[in-house]
Design a protein that fits this description.
Layout lengths: L8 H21 L6 H14 L3 E5 L2 H11 L7 E5 L5 H9 L2 E5 L10 H7 L4 E4 L11 H11 L4 E3 L7 E2 L2 E2 L6 E5 L13 E5 L2 H10 L4 E3 L2 E2 L10 H11 L2 H19 L13 E2 L5 E4 L3 H10 L29 H9 E4 L7 H14 L1
Parallel strand pairs: 2-3, 2-4, 5-8
Antiparallel strand pairs: 1-9, 6-7, 6-12, 8-9, 10-11, 13-14
Helix pairs in contact: 1-8, 2-8, 3-4, 3-7, 5-6, 9-12
The structure holds pyridoxal-5'-phosphate.
């Protein structure tokens, strides 16, 4: 038996009829940029997250960058980001014209450590950008408290956390605004690139709406230098159909995660730590191994695909050479990056596939 790390084909096999109907509706509508399909998805996703507004954009990177720009973040400013994340979080800050200021994670949850945030704040800090890494919400209560006390807005990078909850509230409703990616592999994925911002603040929604569309609120009237980053109506229609199954599919992920947790308890692997106040969306099931290379090769030979999220932290990427942050600058993050392995998890894994992964991980760890 072979279990790939991830396969997206079963999505269409399960809900193909709804997806085909959504495509057909858009094709026949004669309306191919913004318009009613985008508005309908924005309303549906805001209601799902529990926010007043949602603005559909082109991708997750733009979602973050446009919020930062709408908040006036730019040249000479700093934004606090996790040292342990996908590079997109940092790039959004750079594209807004500001400087990413990395803060180390809590080594158990992998999410930004609230206690270290305060020490990183300077006169130039204009936003805090926590990531809900792997699908578990960052510890948002202390982060919001710091933000409120210091007058610094908090933007969630919720790209991996569609449907996750923290103290009863959904990711997307945990900060002053949240950015989502609907990259195809995410828990709520499009069939191409797509993203969205959620927020309660009406003025922020209006600003992001203008920024995503050339800075224009009224046709041919440009108040600011915006970009072209509009959620595509075809993707919006497909996402609307997929949103109907998000909770059920996240439950399937959670069931697999709890089987893995029980089955791997006695192995020399560090298993994911879950916070009691949060419901994990299980975007990824990440373990840590001191002998990652051998572990991955053994699994590969036994027909189990794995991945690494992520092999190199942003501060050691050539793209950020200008920050002159050397190896050893963020030791917790570097240690995590050296040891993490992502195992197959997804709403379409069969019981037999999960059994196979368990058996082979037990034989390889
Ligand atoms: C996927 C992802 C993004 C970027 O999303 P795109 O839609 O590819 O721009 C940003 N942050 C995190 C944590 C992600 O996983």
């Amino acid at each position: 038996m072979k279990v790939p790390f991830l396969s997206l084909k079963p999505i269409h096999e399960e809900i193909g009829a709804a997806l085909d109907a959504a495509c057909d509706r858009v094709l026949r509508s004669g309306w191919y940029v913004l318009g009613p399909e985008v508005e309908a998805f924005e309303e549906k996703f805001a209601a799902y997250c529990g926010t007043k507004h949602c603005v559909g954009v082109g991708n997750g990177l733009d979602a973050m960058m446009l919020v930062l720009r709408a908040w006036g973040v730019g040249e000479g400013h700093e934004v606090i980001v996790p040292s342990n994340t996908y590079i997109a979080t940092w790039l959004a800050v750079s594209y807004a014209g500001a400087r990413p200021v990395p803060v180390e994670p809590d080594e158990a949850t992998y999410n930004i450590d609230p206690e270290r945030i305060e020490r990183a704040i300077t006169r130039r800090t204009r936003a805090i950008l926590p990531v809900h890494l792997y699908g578990q919400a960052a510890d948002m209560a202390p982060i919001r408290e710091i933000g409120k006390r210091r007058g610094i807005p908090v933007l969630e990078d919720a790209a991996q956390a569609h449907g996750a909850r923290y103290r009863g509230k959904r990711a997307g409703a945990l900060g002053n605004a949240a950015a989502f990616s609907f990259y195809p592999t995410k828990n709520l994925g499009a069939f191409g690139d797509a993203g969205a911002v959620t927020m309660d603040d009406k003025r922020l929604a209006q600003k992001v709406r203008a920024l995503r569309n050339y800075g224009s609120r009224k046709r041919y009237v440009n108040e600011v230098k915006g970009v072209n980053s509009r959620l595509d109506p075809m993707q919006a229609a497909l996402l609307g159909a997929r949103l109907d199954t998000l909770d059920v599919w996240n439950e399937r992920r959670a069931r697999i995660a709890s089987r893995y947790m029980a089955a791997f308890e006695d192995l020399p692997l560090v298993l994911p730590a879950t916070l009691p106040e949060s419901a994990h969306a299980w975007h990824l099931f990440v373990v840590r191994s001191k002998r990652r290379k051998a572990f991955r090769e053994a699994l590969q030979a036994r027909g189990v695909g794995t991945d690494v999220h992520y092999p190199t932290p942003p501060h050691l990427q050539r793209a950020y050479a200008e920050l002159k942050m050397r190896k050893g600058a963020f030791p917790i993050s570097e240690r995590i990056h050296r040891e993490v392995v992502s195992l197959p998890i997804g709403p379409h894994m069969s019981e037999a596939e999960v059994d196979h992964v368990i058996e082979q991980v037990r034989a390889s760890a």
